[in-house]
Design a protein that fits this description.
Elements lengths: L1 H4 L7 H27 L7 H8 L2 H28 L5 H26 L4
Length: 119
């Protein structure tokens, strides 16, 4: 059974492990994000206040890690669903390339959008 679950044709061990690791990362970084944003907030959430918070290194690093973890987790989930539907061979390679391109583009755009707040 274990060999079937982790077989390369069914997705592979590293994407399987990455899915579990990013699930934990998403949960932890969302909790940190909520605590930093709402629990320790002494002023209301305004555009300027959010900019001041993002200028803080801890909030920015947490948000970048959250962004990357969510992207990997979501795109890897899409990959696994399509592989479960029977995509294989050359189609799998094309799917991997397309998902990596989408992931890198989305990560670059997200980091660029957050980077504006770095002082």
């Amino acid at each position: 059974m274990r060999a079937e679950v982790l077989a390369r044709e069914q997705g592979g061990m590293w994407p399987w492990l990455g899915q579990r690791v990013t699930a934990v990362l998403v949960l932890v970084t969302i909790m940190v994000h909520l605590v930093l944003t709402h629990l320790f907030a002494s002023v209301p959430l305004t555009f300027d206040d959010i900019g001041d918070r993002l200028a803080s290194g801890a909030v920015l690093v947490n948000d970048v890690v959250l962004l990357l973890a969510v992207l990997f987790h979501g795109l890897n989930g899409v990959r696994m669903v399509l592989l479960d539907w029977g995509l294989s061979g050359g189609g799998r390679r094309v799917l991997d390339i397309v998902l990596w391109a989408v992931g890198v583009a989305a990560a670059a755009y997200g980091i660029w959008a957050l980077w504006v707040w770095v002082s």
